[in-house]
Write a structure and sequence with these properties.
The protein is an all-alpha fold. It has one domain: Up-down Bundle (Ferritin), CATH 1.20.1260.10. The chain has five helices and no strands. Helix 4 runs antiparallel to helix 5. The chain starts with a helix and ends with a helix. Bound molecules: MU-OXO-diiron (FEO).
Length: about 160
């Protein structure tokens, strides 16, 4: 069992995970429009991951006897100024997600809802990975440069993501 309040908070995060998927899908389209198909593939991979995150919230809410309420998914930002800007925006977004997960954990702790707290731990660890991955990409861009050959090399590397 989860409380109504926790149910609402988890539904809200379910929605936000699908918003994240949508955001990355828009980034994939922008990268493809620049001819950076490796980056585009990387963002499509991100999209699938976010949908998987949304599904985890869905399953957990149901397992706990809660109600699934699917709100509308907001239209994400789709205009960017550079390929590097995609990764800067991604890191800013993931930091926001981390704060949301921390907020959910705090709410679960306050209710002594240890099951939800335990469920959320996976997401907290996932956020460490997500942020580290983006910091790594941004460091590579800082070293190699944000245009020209270095961008093409990184496009080739990120396109191998499986
Ligand atoms: Fe669902 Fe990128 O965190």
């Amino acid at each position: 069992m989860i409380s109504k309040k926790m149910n609402d908070l988890l539904n809200d995060q379910l929605n936000f995970e699908f918003y994240s998927a949508y955001l990355y899908l828009g980034m994939a389209a922008y990268a493809a429009s620049l001819g950076l198909n490796g980056f585009s593939g990387w963002f499509k991979f991100q999209t699938k991951e976010e949908m998987g995150h949304g599904a985890k919230f869905y399953e957990y809410i149901q397992r706990q006897g809660g109600d699934i309420v699917l709100g509308s998914v907001a239209s994400p930002k789709q205009k960017f100024t550079s390929a590097a800007g995609l990764f800067e925006a991604s890191l800013a977004h993931e930091r926001k997600v981390t704060q949301r997960i921390v907020g959910l954990m705090a709410a679960a702790k306050k209710e002594a809802d240890y099951s939800t707290e335990s469920f959320l731990l996976w997401f907290l660890n996932e956020q460490v990975e997500e942020e580290a991955q983006l910091v790594d990409i941004l460091q590579k861009l800082a070293i190699g440069g944000k245009t020209g050959n270095s961008l093409l090399i990184l496009d080739g590397i990120l396109g191998q993501r499986k």
